Amino acid sequence: MAAVHRGPGQGVGVRSSAGRNASAAPRKPFFALACALSVAVAARAPAVQPPESSAEPARLAAQSLLIAVATAGARLVAVGDRGVIVLSDDRGTSWTQALDVPTQALLTGVCFLDGAHGVAVGHDEVILTTADAGATWRRTHYAPEAQRPLLDVWCGGGGHAIAVGAYNAYFTSEDGGASWTARKFTAAPPPGARAARTGPSAGAAEHGAAGGGYHLNRIVPAGASRLYIAAEAGHLYRSDDGGATWHELSPPYEGSFFGVLPLPGEAVLAFGLRGHLYRSEDAGSSWRKIETGTVALLDGAARFDDAGVAIVGLSGVVLVSHDHGRTFTLAQQSDRAGLSAAVPVGEAELAAVGEDGARLISLRDAPGGARGAR
Fold first, then answer.
1. 3-state SS of the chain?
2. pLDDT for residue 190
3. 25, part of any domain
4. Structural domain span for residue 241
5. Number of domains the chain is built from
6. How do residues 277-331 score in pLDDT, each as one tens digit?
7. Is 81 a domain residue?
8. Whole-number pLDDT of residue 212
9. Is residue 10 part of a domain?
10. What pLDDT does 357 receive?
């Protein structure tokens, strides 16, 4: 399996701390996932974990490689290379670095349970938690010997959180990220499937053993109890019970997916390699391909105003829709720097992160063009 790395400007489709493994280099034509095994037996993180260096202060932290961004109340929190975490309290206009971050691993995902409590994950199977909206962080899980990066994390209600990653890595927490249980990820096959597809099964690898299972690239919520996972090799999964059980969706193509964006009702978008974008009106039971006008990897998405959707990717790609994701216009950023994630900060403005750090992107130009970054 290829190494994984989720981020702009590095490899195609996986996330990692330095390259091919937890100590390889960041992905450069887009995020490379590096690691080793999946999950089998539920296991708690060890009580005593090896020491690791903290993130170093950087004058240009907000212009360094950033992979993911989330909201913590009115604050924006973005995470990225070498344990860098930056915070914005003015909707992305300016950023400051969080200086108490106990890792130098590439951070690939971040989410918040409320305005103060959040979780960040990354390479070396590191998991961090915060109780003060990202100002300070505590390490609650760390397993560099597993050589398996975590790629994304979801925060739900009641302290429930799920972290996913390379080779079917799947960890759950019921206490807001203070402790974690490694679980075997399994999914029921798509309706009408005759036989399992070739390749490693969705739950084949045992925790701690290298090389089995698909890379789980992104986990996103859709309402109170529904979740989606975007994975490699055409795999998409849905849970209707908050992650207690999963079933695989019928794949619209065999390439890797790097994101899913739920829309009103049962509609959902799935996107990934080479500009592939698909829309479903029935929660993933069937799919329609949408033309994008690009072959760049698509990695992040956000909703804005009443009907707006923006999808970002490599080469400065911004796809803009004003009809709930039925059609898109390509608005490529002039500097062509890779983008990996975005959140809305206004009716027609995004705070985006990627290869050159954080930026604001205006979406005001009809019929969907972006004015550019500032």
1. CCCEEEEECCCCCECCCCCCCCCCCCCCCEEEECCCEECCCCCECCCCCCCCCCCCCCCCHHHCCEEEEEEECCEEEEEEHHHCEEEECCCCCCCEECCECCCCCCEEEEEECCCCCEEEEEHHHEEEEECCCCCECEEEECCHHHCCCEEEEEECHHHCEEEEEHHHCEEEECCCCCCCEECCCCCECCCCCCCCCCCCCCCCCCECCECCCCCEEEEEEECCCEEEEEECCCCEEEECCCCCCCEECCCCCCCCEEEEEECCCCCEEEEEHHHCEEEECCCCCCCEECCCCCCCCEEEEEEECCCEEEEEEHHHCEEEECCCCCCCEECCCCCCCCEEEEEEEECCEEEEEECCEEEEEECCECCCECCEEC
2. 87
3. no
4. 54-190+199-373
5. 1
6. 999 999 999 999 999 999 999 999 999 988 999 999 999 999 999 999 999 999 9
7. yes
8. 59
9. no
10. 98
